[in-house]
Amino acid sequence: MEKIQNDTIAAIATPVGEGGIGIIRLSGSGSLKIADGIFEGKHGRNKPSGFLTYTTHYGLIRDKSEKIDEVILTVMRAPKTYTREDVVEINCHSGIVPLRKILELVLARGARIAEPGEFTKRAFLSGRIDLSQAEAVADVVRAKTDLSLKAAMGQLQGGLSKKISSARAGLLNLLADIEASIDFPEEDTGDVPGNMLAGKLDQCRIELEGLLKTFDAGRLLKEGVSAAIIGRPNVGKSSLLNCLVGKERAIVTSVPGTTTDTIEETMDVGGVHIRVIDTAGIGRRGKRPGIIEAEGIRRAGRVMEVSQLLLLVLDGSQPLKAEDRKLLGRIKNRKAIILINKIDLRQKIKSKDLQTAHPAIEISAKKNRNIDKVRAQISREVWGGKIDFTGDAVLTSIRHKNEIGSAVKNLRSAGSSAGSAELASMDIREAINALGRITGETITEDILDRIFDKFCIGK
Ligand SMILES: Nc1nc2c(ncn2[C@@H]2O[C@H](COP(=O)(O)OP(=O)(O)OP(=O)(O)O)[C@@H](O)[C@H]2O)c(=O)[nH]1
Ligand SMILES: [Mg+2]
């Protein structure tokens, strides 16, 4: 899908705000000429259109007689650039005004403001990277842990593309053989006997199924997991949140019903990004819940429904109460860890009283005891010990998963219509198209738009 882009696009490529350096990026055939009109080199009279590729130059950005900022300007000439077009990057002081003024200046001289992800979209349309690599750019930018970065980088460097392209190439060959046997049935085309066809289809399908199996782990890496801290009022939920995230995030007092809203923080456990959510205590407080507390309890219930992992806190210094039992019942079929808190006090709960299949850990949130065990258990629950991350391709995108899923279905159906070459070839063609939509060989404009809409401006 090669396409000529004539217009020159520009955007602020760094977060807008006060900082050391801000970057305005230009891409397109007009980039150098636009830069010529506003840049005045400090040393020598050269203009950007005369600069060698991948050289940087110190100078001023000017709007006629007005000096806007001192900058470093980098010229990168087509085709060896991010977009394969002429690219100019202007490093200026990162303040809202210089960034905005320089952007306005390049727009006034004929550049157009870039859409979200348009630089990366051009890198794809020019054929420098395929679609799955372009998507990985957004994943790299958004990576929240070392492991999610590793997965995104693997994809950016073509790990997934290679697997998909080789499966697709195999299917294209197979299809060519089958179609030759349909078109010239009388000739000996070295045709594909049924069992050989079935063997090749199986091989390709099994490979794709292997890729599908990496999706649970991949999604975990990319999206992270939400873990809700739940329990009766005053059992130490907020104290636990503070321990886990290592700061005094939530208010802790001895008054039952201290937390009235949900409080969210993030942490990294074994490379997985975890959103920990503290909630209002569920159940009776000292007094009857007012409107605020009632809403807090309702929210706690909702968070409990949607979180992937539940951390049920019990107060070990008190006998198990009816409300604790109710909560134990509610988490029966959920992924959960039970935390018997306040073990620094005399204990009234024994783990065996709990009658639960969930793991239970005795902790003291106040004295920071056994919190490392909680982390280790969270990691076990979340990873299930089954992530093996050997640098092979990992599926992290639901879009890719769906396309591979439909390719697998088509290959299965092709295998079962072994008798009819026509039917089999139709299915194989569908599978080839599905795989092509991952790498971008076969893709429609609206899917492209949907993918790049999710990017940030300037990327
Ligand atoms: N002795 C002891 N006290 C604790 C421990 N953890 C929490 N507490 C105390 O228990 C009281 C309640 O703690 P919080 O963390 O506010 O409890 P909570 O479950 O968030 O309470 P609500 O927000 O009211 O539902 C505070 O006085 C804490 O200091 C612990 O491990 N040992
Ligand atoms: Mg609280």
UniProtKB/TrEMBL annotation:
The keyword Iron belongs to this UniProt entry's keyword annotation: no
Principal subcellular localization: cytoplasm
Residue ranges constituting the TrmE-type G domain according to the UniProt record: 224-383
GO biological process, alphabetically ordered: tRNA methylation; tRNA wobble uridine modification
Binding site for Mg(2+): S238, T259
Compartments it resides in: Cytoplasm
UniProt keyword annotations, A-Z: Cytoplasm, GTP-binding, Hydrolase, Magnesium, Metal-binding, Nucleotide-binding, Potassium, tRNA processing
Co-factor requirement: K(+)
Residues where GTP binds: 234-239, 253-259, 278-281
Record note on cofactor: Binds 1 potassium ion per subunit.
Entry keyword tRNA processing: yes
Gene Ontology cellular-component annotations: cytosol
GO MF annotation terms: GTP binding; GTPase activity; identical protein binding; metal ion binding
Organism domain of life: Bacteria
One Pfam family in the UniProt entry: MMR_HSR1
Binding site for (6S)-5-formyl-5,6,7,8-tetrahydrofolate: R25, E89, R128, K459
UniProt-listed Enzyme Commission number(s): 3.6.-.-
Binding locations of K(+): N234, T253, V255, T258
Binding partners and assembly: Homodimer. Heterotetramer of two MnmE and two MnmG subunits.
Matching PANTHER family: TRNA MODIFICATION GTPASE GTPBP3 (PTHR42714), TRNA MODIFICATION GTPASE GTPBP3, MITOCHONDRIAL (PTHR42714:SF2)
HAMAP family assigned: GTPase_MnmE (MF_00379)
Function description: Exhibits a very high intrinsic GTPase hydrolysis rate. Involved in the addition of a carboxymethylaminomethyl (cmnm) group at the wobble position (U34) of certain tRNAs, forming tRNA-cmnm(5)s(2)U34.
Family, per entry: Belongs to the TRAFAC class TrmE-Era-EngA-EngB-Septin-like GTPase superfamily. TrmE GTPase family.
Protein name as annotated: tRNA modification GTPase MnmE
Organism name: Candidatus Desantisbacteria bacterium CG_4_10_14_0_8_um_filter_48_22
Gene of this entry: trmE
